[in-house]
Specification:
With 283 residues, the chain is an alpha+beta fold. Helix content is 18%, strand content 34%. The chain has one domain: Glutamine Phosphoribosylpyrophosphate, subunit 1, domain 1. The strands form four sheets. It has a seven-stranded antiparallel β-sheet with strand order 3-2-4-1-14-11-15, with no helix packed on it. A six-stranded antiparallel β-sheet has the order 5-6-7-8-16-17, covered by helices on one side. Strand 5 and strand 6 form a beta hairpin.
Length: 283
């Protein structure tokens, strides 16, 4: 199955080392060789790079690393195709404009019956169940973006996502990252391992804070290079990318992450207003 990666930070940062290890899973140390993509937010817009080729030996991955692109919000995906051929149109992240902002979505899982989801004015370009799910999500979010405040309150989006995730998880594993440029929304479900067994955790999280020294500090293990005096960062990935203490997220966990901090916590299928646990491990 595919792998997901996301980053939210207080100050712009690179994800070079994390991206390098993540890319190795795309055809070298892992079987996810059917494409990859990464979206770097820059305000309300994104730098989006996608390629229907293995990430492990991609020149574009090396270019991203060499250029040292900085962002406070990053969403990435490596693909192992289950539906739809290896093609650019089926390569994630998927992105659409709504309300004057770019919205980005990545998904890991296999959704039986996704073609029955209502997509409204949003139409898939490719053949994946993941893109259908994204179009369905955007159709549900559309009233919040077009009829109310822009961007809508994270609480409103979280409530909608809780029921969206509940519907998707009934079709199959439904790990996803969604962002509107302000917040990174996370849903952790079950995940199929290399042995074929489907079980939680679907995602892992690493929360880090540091103060930079005068000569510049690095969160070496996390692969983050910072120039500011204060930095906090949240990394989310399908599997841990470093030797640090990544925390597994339990099945059904939904998070709203903004500027390197977990702001809200909830469970799918429920009203989302629970306080964020002091530790997210096994919640």
């Amino acid at each position: 199955m595919c792998e997901l990666f996301g980053m939210s930070s207080r100050q712009p940062a690179t994800v070079n080392l994390s991206m390098e290890e993540f890319a190795r899973h795309g055809g070298l140390t892992g079987p996810h060789a059917d494409g990859w993509g990464i979206a770097f937010y820059d305000g309300s817009d994104i730098r989006l790079l996608r390629e229907p080729e293995p990430a492990a030996d991609s020149r574009w991955v090396r270019l991203v690393r060499e250029q040292g692109v900085r962002s406070s919000l990053v969403v990435s995906h490596i693909r192992r195709a289950t539906r739809g051929p290896r093609a650019l149109r089926n390569t994630q992240p998927f992105a659409r404009e709504m309300g004057g902002r770019m919205h980005v979505f990545v998904h890991n899982g296999d959704l039986a019956g996704a073609d029955r989801l209502e997509v409204g004015m949003f139409h898939p370009v490719g053949e994946t169940d993941s893109e259908v799910a994204f179009c369905h999500l955007l159709q549900g979010l559309r009233p919040l973006w077009l009829d109310g405040e822009v961007p809508p309150a994270a609480e409103e989006v979280m409530s909608l996502l809780a029921f969206f995730a509940d519907r998707l998880s009934a079709m199959g594993p439904a790990n996803f990252l969604y962002s509107d440029g302000e917040t990174l929304f996370v849903h952790s479900d079950r995940r199929q391992g290399l042995d074929g067994r489907i079980a939680p955790p679907g995602l892992h999280i690493l929360v880090r804070e540091c103060s930079a020294r005068a000569d510049g500090d690095r969160m070496h293990g996390s692969g983050l290079n910072i120039d500011s005096e204060e930095q906090s960062v949240v990394l989310v990935a399908s599997v841990p990318l470093t030797d640090e203490p990544w925390q597994p997220l339990s099945e059904g966990t939904i998070l709203a992450v903004s500027r390197g901090e977990v702001r809200q916590y909830g469970r799918r299928g429920e009203e989302v207003n629970a306080p964020v646990p002091a530790r997210l491990e096994h919640v």
